[in-house]
Write a sequence for this structure.
């Protein structure tokens, strides 16, 4: 039993490898992650998280009173978060981002984003 | 429910009560709490707690109207925002449990004390207002925190009420910290 179409495919594959200089390019994709930061007892829990660009951070307020999440330089900020309300941020760059609650500035947290974008193809 | 809301409205309008008044009528309140038998039932605690928040909201509105001090204004906004949230939570609990908070001697004392403080505040301007407001808020929150921890929580029976008091007191402890900073800065004015 022969499979001529398979032979052709193998041949095409070998030719393509030649076209690309003989290198096999391994491509993997990692899915974006969702990270939850709970706001409870006037603290961000966990206070520090590490993410990759493309990940989403979700803040959920479990306190009675409203909170207002804001990057220290005001570059991004949430809406006023009443009890049980959430706010999501799509992280689109690398770096360490210190944030506070504008209403209760003693509440502070940090998002550290590094690595390749989870949305892109990673090439070893 | 209508009567309850009416009652709360009356309480709020009547002078909004509780702990603020305790700063000046603290001795009477302390004496009430030192009685042998539990001084308050759950319905009275609910009444006192709600009116305490309403009182601080009234102080804050007066501060917004009379003060130009940025720290005072920020603190007053925080008090309105947080105490309103907590009082709304209390109203929701009252509705859920289908209860009517009871007016009581402490609430009445607090109303009177609160009226006196509001009258005093209304005569002050500038740094004098900032200093008096800051000192009152610090005293108020210290007493609130202490009263809830040492008096109300040990005698409250309903678990929902206790949970509300615990949650509220976490907020009041944070407020106390803010008030300490505000008061410290106001003393330098």
């Amino acid at each position: 039993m022969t499979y001529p179409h398979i032979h052709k495919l193998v041949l095409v594959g070998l030719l393509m490898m030649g076209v690309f200089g003989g290198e096999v390019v391994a491509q993997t994709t990692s899915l974006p992650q969702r990270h939850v930061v709970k706001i409870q007892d006037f603290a961000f829990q966990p206070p520090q998280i590490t993410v990759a660009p493309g990940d989403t951070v979700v803040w959920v307020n479990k306190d009675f009173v409203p909170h207002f999440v804001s990057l220290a330089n005001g570059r991004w900020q949430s809406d006023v978060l009443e009890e049980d309300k959430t706010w999501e941020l799509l992280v689109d760059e690398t770096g360490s981002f210190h944030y506070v609650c504008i209403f209760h500035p003693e509440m502070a947290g940090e998002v550290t984003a590094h690595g390749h974008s989870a949305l892109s193809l990673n090439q070893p | 429910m209508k009567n309850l809301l009416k009652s709360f409205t009356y309480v709020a309008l009547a002078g909004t009560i509780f702990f603020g008044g305790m700063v000046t009528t603290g001795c009477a309140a302390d004496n009430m709490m030192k009685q042998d038998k539990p001084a308050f039932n759950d319905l009275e605690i609910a009444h006192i707690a709600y009116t305490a928040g309403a009182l601080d909201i009234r102080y804050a509105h007066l501060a917004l109207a009379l003060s130009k001090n940025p720290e005072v204004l920020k603190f007053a906004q925080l008090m309105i925002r947080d105490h309103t949230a907590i009082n709304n939570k209390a109203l929701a609990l009252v509705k859920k449990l289908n209860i009517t908070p009871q007016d009581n001697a402490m609430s009445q004392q607090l109303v009177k004390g609160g009226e006196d403080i509001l009258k005093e505040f209304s005569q002050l301007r500038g740094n004098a207002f900032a200093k008096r407001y800051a000192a009152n808020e610090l005293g108020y929150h210290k007493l609130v925190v202490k009263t809830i921890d040492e008096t109300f929580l040990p005698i409250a029976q309903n678990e929902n009420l206790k949970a509300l008091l615990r949650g509220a007191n976490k907020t009041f402890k944070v407020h106390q910290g803010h008030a300490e900073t505000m008061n410290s800065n106001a003393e330098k004015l």
Remarks:
- Chain B touches chain A at residues 78, 81-82, 85-86, 89, 167-168, 170-171, 174, 177-178 (CB under 8 Å).
- Residues 1-33 of chain B have pLDDT under 50 and may be disordered.
